[in-house]
Amino acid sequence: MSPRQTPSQTIGPFFHYGLNPVEANYPHSQIAGHCLASDQTLGEHIRLTGRVFDGNGAVVEDALLEIWQANAAGRYAHPNDARSNRALDPHFHGFGRCGTGANEQARFTFCTIKPGPAQPGHAPFISVTVFMRGLLNHVYTRIYFDDEAAANAADPVFSSVAPERQVTLLAKRYHTPSGIEYRFDIHMQGDQETVFFDL
Amino acid sequence: MSVLSGRDWKSQPPYIDQGYKSTSLRGPSRSLVKIDPELAEMTGPAFGDEVIGSLDHDLTRNGRVNGEPLGERIVVTGRVLDENGQSLPNTLIEVWQANAAGRYIHKKDQHDAPVDPNFLGAGRCMTDDQGRYRFYTIRPGAYPWGNHPNAWRPNHIHFSLFGPTIATRLITQMYFPGDPLLAFDPIFESVPEAARGRLISEFSLDVTEEGFALGYVFDIVLRGTQATPMEGTE
């Protein structure tokens, strides 16, 4: 008999000293932080920021977000993406982790680059995994970019989402004095409930 | 290009669980939208030995300030594999837990039990080429929480694993055999009954290190993936 999946359990409220201890000022190192890009990373540098809301519209202060994305050439830093026509960027690995409790407004903020489209006919996007107390299984969503309307409309995943819910997957682009910022909020429930994927 | 087994909802807890109150406002209320795995889901972060410090696998030593942590030393070991029975080598495991008195070092833990100045309660290890892992720690204590009157969490260690892609990501909790609190814990009980036993470690005299630490075995099964790398120039 083949082995069966180990059940998921909530991350709970007290994960910070284990998973993002540097950000939360605990004496332990962490495997990845909120800054994915260095000065040498190729591509358009962006800041990705937002908040997580519960079913009452209250800000969630104890969520953990992880993001995973392709580089500016649309290549993932992983052995399953061995396409020789797309260059790896030695200054970009594509994974980041950020909690929501580190600032007063409970925002997450990543500094990264806008990915290239990873496959022909696909839009650029960033994969997001969300964990929190009260969430027994993590949820997956994707961040698409609101300045990529034509590419989004052609994207097989984005276009498969009911039109009235597509807006929940769009980050809004802003020009700020400190650079390009995309804002993306996550709503766990309610009229604006974010589309979460079963993948 | 790839085969990815889905989340087995007969093994996984629901998003909204009547017994675990925080789920009522935080679990998604709409159905998940099914997508076919693309490159994004067939890839994920890979970590090497560079993220493992020399004491990261030993929670009895990595938080010492002026002595040894209090409590019962244990060694926890097991195998990480996928649903196809394949061992998963070089997979990162992150763990965190309360101390022997049931107190987390976390700033927001209000439980009136002592902090142990010599115990951090967080560590990391990698699976070896056989998919096996091992770490040393102190058996965590039970602690009360506010879910319902006289609610207590059973002894548990939090585990975080990546596996080969973002689709195999898992965060779970390992429990101990014979814990009388399991039957009263809505987080444990949220799991379909047939799958609950997979969260309980087994005591092992073979793993137990004579004169030093009791041994527990906890195997972890992630979703199955079979990917053929995307190669060439498209």
From TrEMBL, chain A:
Residues 48-76 form the Intradiol ring-cleavage dioxygenases domain. It comes from the Bacteria. It holds the Pfam family Dioxygenase_C. Signal peptide: none annotated. Gene3D superfamilies: Aromatic compound dioxygenase. InterPro entries: Intradiol_dOase_C (IPR000627), Intradiol_dOase_core (IPR015889), Intradiol_RC_Dioxygenase (IPR050770), Protocat_dOase_a (IPR012786). Keywords: Dioxygenase, Oxidoreductase. The keyword Oxidoreductase applies. GO terms for molecular function: ferric iron binding; protocatechuate 3,4-dioxygenase activity. Belongs to the intradiol ring-cleavage dioxygenase family. This is Protocatechuate 3,4-dioxygenase, alpha subunit. It comes from Marinobacter algicola DG893. The lineage of its organism: Bacteria, Pseudomonadati, Pseudomonadota, Gammaproteobacteria, Pseudomonadales.
UniProtKB/TrEMBL annotation, chain B:
InterPro entries: Intradiol_dOase_C, Intradiol_dOase_core, Intradiol_RC_Dioxygenase, PCDO_beta_N, Protocat_dOase_b. GO terms for molecular function: ferric iron binding; protocatechuate 3,4-dioxygenase activity. Residues 76-104 form the Intradiol ring-cleavage dioxygenases domain. GO terms for biological process: 3,4-dihydroxybenzoate catabolic process. The keyword Metal-binding does not apply. Keywords: Dioxygenase, Oxidoreductase. Gene3D superfamilies: Aromatic compound dioxygenase. Belongs to the intradiol ring-cleavage dioxygenase family. NCBIfam families: protocat_beta. This is Protocatechuate 3,4-dioxygenase, beta subunit. It comes from Marinobacter algicola DG893.
